[in-house]
């Protein structure tokens, strides 16, 4: 639970078990290092929190940096619950694991496919499972690209 906004600017994170981001502040991922959500682990963004994915503080991240948070396997997950997701630059691509949406989730992104919030990479063994839970509502203010092979 952050008492102010936190920007992670360098290095890597390794998420083991259930890691909750709570509170009303923003967690910004601005590192160009690759981070991992381990098997049977969840990175959880709780009510009123905000997550921003924008590697590089000074300029737009490259297309090759759209996937610096890796879901290790199908049992790795990211859970958005009544929170906001900001993708101010070149978007974000997730593969392999599972993403959950619960309650009202707001996604602020870019308006082009190349800079989208992308699910999958057209490779069947890296497809992303997407779970929109009962009663969930996704407000998208940007392009979402469903790119699973199956």
Structural class: mainly beta
Low-confidence stretches: none
Strand content: 35-45%
Q: How are helices and strands ordered from N to C?
A: EEEEEEEEEEEEEEEEE
Describe the structure.
0% of the residues lie in helices and 42% in strands. It has strands spanning 6-8, 14-15, 18-21, 26-29, 35-37, 42-45, 50-53, 69-71, 77-81, 84-86, 92-94, 98-102, 104-108, 117-119, 129-132, 137-141, 144-146. It is globular. The protein is mostly beta strands and 150 residues long. A six-stranded parallel β-sheet has the order 1-4-7-10-13-16, with no helix packed on it. It has a five-stranded parallel β-sheet with strand order 3-6-9-12-15, with no helix packed on it. The N and C termini lie far apart (37 Å). It is built from no helices and 17 strands.
């Amino acid at each position: 639970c952050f008492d102010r906004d936190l920007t992670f600017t360098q290095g890597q994170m390794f998420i083991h078990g259930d890691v909750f981001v709570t509170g009303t502040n923003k967690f910004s991922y601005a590192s160009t290092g690759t981070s991992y959500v381990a098997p049977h682990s969840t990175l959880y963004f709780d009510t009123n929190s905000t997550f921003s994915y924008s590697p590089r503080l000074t300029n737009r991240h490259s297309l090759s940096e759209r996937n610096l948070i890796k879901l290790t396997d199908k049992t790795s997950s990211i859970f958005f619950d009544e929170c906001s997701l900001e993708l101010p630059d070149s978007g974000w691509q997730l593969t392999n694991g599972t993403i959950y949406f619960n309650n009202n989730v707001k996604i602020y992104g870019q308006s082009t496919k190349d800079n989208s919030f992308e699910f999958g990479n057209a490779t069947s063994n890296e497809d992303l499972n997407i779970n929109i839970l009962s009663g969930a509502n996704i407000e998208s203010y940007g392009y979402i690209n469903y790119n699973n092979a199956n």
